[in-house]
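To: structure subgroup
Subject: Chain for Friday's discussion

All,

I'm putting the inputs and outputs inline so they're searchable in the archive.
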Amino acid sequence: MGKFTPAVLFVAIAAAQTPGPPDQKGDTVEAASSQTETYGDKHILGVVPNYTTVNEPPKKYQPISAREKFKLATEDTFDPCSLAITGIYAGVAQWGNNYRQFGQGAQGYGKRYGAAFADGAISNYLTEGVLPSLLHEDPRLFRLGTGSKLKRVVYAMTRVLITRTDSGGERFNISEIAGNMISAGLSNLYYPPLNRSLDNTLEHFEINVLSDAGFNILKEFWPDMRRKVLHKGDPEPAR
């Protein structure tokens, strides 16, 4: 889902300051099938992939199949914007000579790009495809959409710890936590020997989880930003 950066935090905080819609008690949304469920924009600000957000909670929860979960992971991983952002990460790492054993030049950049892509791809497929399918968890973010800004920020952040199950209940988000921990551990297979340590593994894990929490805040408030700041109507369903 991308790495956590100061820019992500800034946008998330800005989103939290955007006026939200008033509470609407008693309003309902028609139940939708897994093929036609209402999603947010495919991209936030035209850049951030947004395939896993359910913009309006359905009246009756509908789970998605394992095939659809893997499709979400694939869309997040191979979205052109995701690939471009990965290139930026690799460029910044090369400019700062991070992972110096990769070297410089085109070869060094290619290795950094490959490592950054592997970070995102492994994390996406574990947290959105493999583990949710095995554990019957739902990898989507169901926006709260109403209530105070603080309540919505807390809700969005805690979705990395709480998730829906395929039966419609809620429980600890094993897919998110275990998936990112496994991903961080596997990163030791392709990063240089000098960057393989428990501290580096924990750092990768923390970056992934904090990144997902930050992006959850952005996704929670994106429709409000779109309507209030960009003066556009509610987003059309992505599917």
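Points worth raising on Friday:
The longest strand covers residues 162-165.
Confidence is low (pLDDT under 50) at residues 1-40.

D.
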